């Protein structure tokens, strides 16, 4: 099968996309991919084709590269968009450049469009080896997926079953010119050392090594998918919660997690935390055991890069952003039926009509009491214990006050309004900073 036919076959599920946008660096791999797609466009009905060049601004030698890419795209009659990006300083220039590049790609994709990248089989093998040396788990060793969501569209890698040698043969046969990035030869970068010193030695001893390593990445990808499916099944049980009062805060049932084996516990937690924080390293997972096995009356906290896991009322609660900052002292008048914004703490309103009086919203200071029908004056702290209000919520729980007296406690059943149910205090918890993106 020709390279053109293989690429077309690999892209068959996305033939109805609004557009194919090629991430074009001017290097060998993306040059071949763009030429193949432009050739297909002349005889096949494929989506509108264009290219995106990302200018990182990191090398003086790269100042002529956009012009080269413009000329190449003009010969193919393919529109090219040049996007300049800022690369943040940090310990890894490679990682910072990659993150800046993908942010730019994300911003460029419209709804349903596909971004096509030219990573090939040898890149797949290199990525697996690199991650293996860093001690990655199954998901990391699965390396690069053929497709994944990106922004409003999808990222595709139609060359993952193609060796770079085949791409070079195609480029030479079609007399293509491409850019040789001098930084790719600098073996102070770990990936370049793998590419130029380690993988050639493996190939010399075992000619099928790169293909076998890439195939192993596919197997690990299947294993990772199965682990994700198992995590989803376990989390469906662990996320069930009998009350909606605090449902805006992501939480898991600790008894459900305890019923799983330790590997399944970690698998479920990794999946749950994946979009919320950087994963802890192997040694840091000991903190999970400490939190899980703490005494029943303890309030342990597991601090992670993107937030914290608190344990309360036999549940794990994920807190980040505003939830990690104590709300400002408050004494704010409230009007029936109108939402009142609480700085760093969501918003609150009274549903129904309050009686006459100078009502306002405040927070606990300690020592508050609440008058209850048939029970008289009761200590608020004890009432919150009875209603199993998580400790981390209590300092930010809105209270309806009048003349220094607590009249209602937001979202706590039977404490949130008057006995006749003519009005109640409703709190919409902060969610924008929970790390749920």
Q: Which fold does the CATH topology of the largest domain refer to? A: Rossmann fold
Average of per-residue pLDDT values: 90
Tally of domains: 3
Task: Give Rg in angstroms.
Answer: 29 Å
List low-confidence stretches.
Answer: 432-437
Estimate the helix proportion, in percent: 25-40%
Overall geometric form: elongated
Strand content: 15-25%
For the record, the CATH architecture of the largest domain stands as 3-Layer(aba) Sandwich
Give the neighbour order of strands across the main sheet. Answer: 3-2-1-4-6-5
Q: What is the tally of beta strands? A: 19
CATH C-level label of the largest domain? Alpha Beta
The CATH superfamily of the largest domain turns out to be HUPs
Find the structural class using helix and strand composition: alpha+beta
- Largest sheet, strands/sense/barrel: 6 strands, mixed
Helix segment count?
A: 14
What would you note in describing this structure?
A hairpin with a 2-residue loop joins strand 5 (147-150) and strand 6 (153-156). This protein has helices at residues 3-10, 28-41, 65-76, 93-108, 121-133, 138-141, 164-173, 190-205, 209-238, 254-258, 262-273, 286-292, 380-386, 391-394; strands spanning 19-23, 48-55, 80-84, 114-116, 147-150, 153-156, 251-253, 301-304, 307-312, 315-319, 332-333, 340-341, 347-352, 359-362, 369-372, 376-379, 399-402, 405-409, 423-428. The longest helix is centred in the middle third of the chain and has 30 residues, at 209-238. The protein has 3 domains: 3-223, HUPs (Rossmann fold), CATH 3.40.50; 239-319, Uridine Diphospho-n-acetylenolpyruvylglucosamine Reductase, domain 3 (2-Layer Sandwich); 332-428, no CATH class. It has 437 residues and is α+β, with helices and mostly antiparallel strands. The chain contains 14 helices and 19 strands. Helix 5 (121-133) packs across helix 9 (209-238). A 6-stranded mixed beta sheet has the order 3-2-1-4-6-5, with helices on both faces. A 4-stranded antiparallel beta sheet has the order 7-10-9-8.
